[in-house]
Structures are given as C-alpha cells and as structure tokens.
Amino acid sequence: MQKNTGNIIGQFFGGLNCYLRRCMFAILSVGPVPSHIAFIMDGNRRYAKKKNMEEGDGHKAGFNVLTSILRYCYELGVKYVTVYAFSIDNFKRKSEEVQSLMELMRKKIEELLQQESLINEYGVRLHFIGEMQLLTEPVRAAVERAMRVTAHNNQRVLLICVAYTSRQEIVHAVQECCKEKLNEVQALKEVKVTNGAFSRIDQGLNGNDFDLLSQDSCKDYLKAIKACSSEVESAARKDGLFENNVENHIGDYPEAEMTSYNGLVEITEDRKNKQDEVPFIKLADIEKNMYMAVAPDPDILIRTSGEARLSNFLLWQTSACPLYAPTALWPEIGLRHLIWAVLNFQRHYFYLEKKKKQF
C-alpha cells in the first residue's frame, strides 16, 4: 500500500514539474530562442572525486545529465545541440581510462538508439564530428550505425564531437580546399591544351584534305599529324613568327605552362588570366569543408566547472558567440543554468546579431 502511494505521489510531482517547466519555456519562447547551443561537458572526473566515486562513474553521471539537458533544449525549441564528448588530446590519458571511455561511449550510443529514447521521441538526427578513424573499431561501427539509422530524422539535430579538435578541423578544411582547387587547375589546363593543340592540328588536317575516318590504320594518322606540324612550324619560321613571337618569349613562361606537339609549341596557360578565372581559395570554400558545416554557428556556448576556456572547441564558429561558464560541474548542471544562459542570450540578442553582420 505504501509503495503504491509513493508511486502515485512521485508521478504527481513529476507531472507537476513537467507542467511548470513547459510553462517557463512558453514564457521564454516569447523572446528569441537560440537555434544552436553547444556544450563543453567539463568536470566529470572532478565530480567523481568530489563524491568519492570511481572515476568512470563520473562519466556515467554526466551522460544521465546530458539526456536531461537535451530534453530541456528540445522542449524549448532549440533545433541544434552540439556536445564536446572526447578530444583528440584525451587519447594522451592512461590507456585503461581511454579504453573505458570508448566502451562507455559504445554502450551509450546503443542506448540512444533504443525505441523509447528521446532520439526517437523528438526525431533527432545524429552527427558524429571528428577524426572517426582514431576510434576503436566497435565504437566506429556504433557511430556509423547511429548516423545511418537516424539519417531520416529532420526535426532536431545532435552533433557529438569525438576525436575532435578545432585546429584539426581547420586543417582538414584547408586540405580539402587545396584538393578541390588543384583538380580545378588541372582540369583547366587540360581543356586549354586540348583546345589549343588540336585546333591547330585540325586546321592542318583540313588543309591537307585528310579524313581520319578514311584511314586504315593509326600509322597514317600519326604521319599526317607530323607533316601538319612541320608545315606549321616551317611557315612560322619563314614569316619570322616562330623566333620572334614564340622562342623569344618561352623564357617568360614556366615549363609547366608549355606543351610541345612534334615541334608545335603551344602556350597552354597565360599568366595574365582574368581574376575570375583563377581558382582562389575563398572563405566560403573553407566553411563548406568544415566538419560543422552541417549546422549553423552556435548561438550560446556553455562550459561547466567555471572554466572560461574554449579548449580547442569550435574556434572557427564561436567568433560572435557568448560564453556562459557556470561554476557547477557537468553532472551538477540543471534546468536553472540553461534558463539563465537563454535569458542572457535574449538580453544581448540584438547586439550579438549586429556583431554577426560585421563578420
């Protein structure tokens, strides 16, 4: 009897708490609501030490708090949430601790995919951000499965940064940009070489009444090309064009810009290209190759434990983002901290929007 009474009372206060929370969120929604909140989950190990718990238990408590914070954010109307779960620098910790964290991560990812989890309740799509090849094989398999299973969800987005640092993200983006631009340059040169050389050869072939389709073998075709090239070169030398207009200026071009077809010299790329033809790396190119390109820049960055450092997290994306650093450790963070952060965001909203437009 007492047990049933206790369950009824617990359900009553739980329902009342949920109702009051939704009322507060309705009031907050009158003002601007952040679309993206990022969290640096700092203080799990200190919390375990403070409570005389085993080190791994602090991370477990931190995951339970993460579930609550995600629910609060999604109830408020925040679409994107990013959490800093594991840095590349964390691999420098003791191997036993790293292995324990990898196993805990695998288990919690599987729990997130359960039918009754908030991932399915709110239609959350999972993105894992970072150097996935650094993770252990079981964790990497769980990550790939989680992204594949939630790929159809589009109501909310959860970005989990694992094996991540912002500097590595920037390096990766620049490397991808260089690859893209190199491919563009190579394609541009191939087009110029093809168009320039074969237009000259076609003119010569037409002048000699040469029909490629009527030849029985490629040998005749090669002879015709050689004859055509010799005629063009001889004519150019006779007119003084070869020495004056080509040979005297070959030194003005790097070797990569010259192509020779049996004595027919063709300038394949002019240094004096127009600016719009030169494939420069632009700001938009770098941003589209960022890991975080799948989400807008954060509106609020919250770091627990009172630290006001970014610790190599979203350095590129937080140039106009307010930092809120409550003294509470991550497992101690609660609804009041989130509401206070949102109120501060609303208070400075127009100033922050003005700053964003200046970038």
TrEMBL record:
The broad enzyme category this protein falls into is transferase
This entry's Enzyme Commission designation comes to: 2.5.1.-
Provide the GO MF annotations for this entry: ditrans,polycis-polyprenyl diphosphate synthase [(2E,6E)-farnesyl diphosphate specific] activity
Q: Where are the transmembrane segments?
A: none
Write down the superkingdom of origin: Eukaryota
A GO biological process held by the record = polyprenol biosynthetic process
Write down the SUPFAM superfamilies for this protein, in alphabetical order.
Undecaprenyl diphosphate synthase
Gene3D superfamilies named in the record: Decaprenyl diphosphate synthase-like (3.40.1180.10)
Query: Coiled-coil annotation: which residues?
Result: 88-115
Cite the InterPro entries for this sequence.
UPP_synth-like (IPR001441), UPP_synth-like_CS (IPR018520), UPP_synth-like_sf (IPR036424)
GO CC aspect terms:
endoplasmic reticulum
Q: Which PANTHER family match?
A: DEHYDRODOLICHYL DIPHOSPHATE SYNTHASE COMPLEX SUBUNIT DHDDS, DEHYDRODOLICHYL DIPHOSPHATE SYNTHASE FAMILY MEMBER
Q: What protein name applies here?
A: Alkyl transferase
Please name the source species: Phaseolus vulgaris (Kidney bean)
